[in-house]
Amino acid sequence: MDWTFHNPKFIADAAPELPASFIAGGAWSGHRKFAYDLVRFARPSLIVELGTLYGTSYFSFCQAIKDAQLKSACYAVDTWMGDAHTGAYGTLDDSMYAAVNAVSAREFPGIGTPLRGTFDQALAAFPDGSIQLLHIDGYHVYEAVLHDYTTWLPKLAEGGIILFHDTVVRLADFGVYQLWAELSAMPHLHFEHSNGLGVLFPKGCPASFQPIIGRQQELADHYG
Ligand SMILES: C[S@@+](CC[C@H](N)C(=O)[O-])C[C@H]1O[C@@H](n2cnc3c(N)ncnc32)[C@H](O)[C@@H]1O
Questions:
Q1: Is residue 194 within 6 Å of ligand 1 at its C-beta?
Q2: How confident is the model at residue 93 (pLDDT cuts 50, 70, 90)?
Q3: Which of 46, 97, 161, 218 is deepest in the core (most CB within 10 A)?
Q4: Burial class of residue 206 in the structure, from the number of CB atoms within 10 Å of its CB (0-12 exposed, 13-18 middle, 19+ buried)
Q5: Is 0.90 topped by the overall pTM?
Q6: Ligand 1 mean position to 218 CA, how many Å?
Q7: Per-residue pLDDT tens for 39-48?
Q8: What Pfam families does the record tag this protein with (predicted)?
Q9: Do 127 and 169 contact (CB within 8 A), yes or no?
Q10: How many angstroms separate the CA atoms of 156 and 153, rounded?
């Protein structure tokens, strides 16, 4: 199957519970079309996201599953309490979780499931080797993203994909770029726009993805 550049309509853009400017204009928004095309191409049966906030990335995955009528499940793990980079959500926290939960239940029933808790707590919910697409977008200091990578890697299926956001951010103590430099000897794609998105195949690159990796520049030009 060839890679298709879709022109999706993201239901989340019109969800009254979500801040539209954030979903369509926030730091992750520049990767939504790639994420959508990726899910439609890879057809992962299980997607897990670590770090969801208002769901810019999460709802892109869900949208692709819905539109392609895949029998896939997408889990969004977050405390919805914030971290030292996003700031503590304080009184916002319950309304943010409630918003993501409401949109998920209404627009993506049977597809998307928010899991409120820490990433470490969620580990027990997923068997080893079960996840085809893992998105790591939690706390961005080097030690935290390394911890998320090493603790969740056993959960990834053979040929599975890990997405890392913020791979080019060098502000303050952001350290994803450092981990990305260490990992990117493995097969990957990388986009520098919208704070950077790394697409890593740490357990081998499936034959279907080898020609896609060869189209790095074309994809970067298209999505960037
Ligand atoms: C950068 S935001 C996620 C952005 C989101 N992917 C998007 O598309 O907008 C990071 C989120 O990770 C959550 N977080 C950070 N560390 C966490 C941990 N160890 N366990 C659970 N949630 C965590 C924070 O609460 C925050 O909402």
A1: no
A2: low
A3: 161
A4: middle
A5: yes
A6: 30
A7: 999 999 999 9
A8: Methyltransf_24
A9: no
A10: 5
Ligand 1 in contact with 57 (CB < 6 A)?
yes
- Does residue 78 form part of some domain? yes
Q: Classify residue 2: in a domain, yes or no.
A: no
Closest CA to 65 of 35, 94, 89: 35
CA dihedral 107, 195, 160, 200 (to 10 degrees): 170
Report how far ligand 1's centroid is from the alpha carbon of 164 (Å). 12
- Tell me, yes or no, whether 1 lies in a domain: no
- 53 lies in which domain range? 11-223
Per-residue pLDDT, 14: 93
- What CATH number has the domain bearing residue 128? 3.40.50.150
For residue 86 and ligand 1, the question of a CB distance below 6 A is answered with: yes
| Closest C-alpha to ligand 1, atom 9 | 56
- Number of domains observed in the structure of the chain: 1
**93 or 145, which is more confident?**
145
Residue minimizing CA distance to atom 5 of ligand 1? 52
For residue 24, pLDDT beyond 90: no
